[in-house]
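Quick one, T. Sequence first:
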Amino acid sequence: MLSAKHAALAVKLLSLSLVAALSFFVATSKLPESGFVRDSVESIEDSSNTVMKLSAATLSTSLAISALPDDFATPLADSLADMNIYFVAILVVLFLEKILIRYGIKAAFSILIPLACFTGMLFTATRKDILKSLAVRLCVLGLAVAFVVPCNTHITKVVASDLTAYVDETIEETENGAGKLNEAMEGGAEDKTIFEKLSGLFQTAIDDLSDLMLHFQNTIRRCLNSIAILILTNCLMPLLTFFVLKWILKELFQIAIPLPPVRRSRGAGPGSESGAGLVSTGGKGP
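Structure tokens:
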């Protein structure tokens, strides 16, 4: 019959084995399909679609402006086209987030958590403190890899709800502007100037070149504001997540490097007194 001590040890080992089995066989397959994780993936996909819609809107507006006669708006068209480098950078960050969610959770619950449980079992059997510390660190690392990014996407979705509405309005306004500009260039009465056609389509006073330039400058301003919002919500906050994860890794796996002992100079310190005692004071021999 097992003693109380051995029974407690067996219970701990069985509990850790059960946690490792549940993590490997249940959590690895169930958590990626949970509503919490799927909402995070859908939020990232929605952000990617928004970025691509704004990119398409700026490109279509740039092409429409380039079609204006005399190339007077070419600098504005080039400014709109140059914005796409920011969209590419934002999409790269979003794809990295999606990969981390998709594979990070599986890696955490199929490798890190079972490894932490196995290390905990070794600690229970050997009672070595280094194994206990390693088990705790592996467990915290696995949970961080699994949940930091999904939590960040939910927080971003709540915080940036008002800002994303501004981006959607900008996309709609930019697309409408490009469509109206193309319509003015393609058809309409031949006796009207391009400014008269645009004035009727935009339902505003566009009487000369300066008015048209001001209209597209306002479009560029709204696009720049939208890019800043997208960078804030889709790049800076995920980067903050990565920095938090980096800090966790640093705190978990930091290694204390021992410093070399400081050498005292010869004749300094308490030993200098004993050294002084070797010097003859009276000059007498034995």
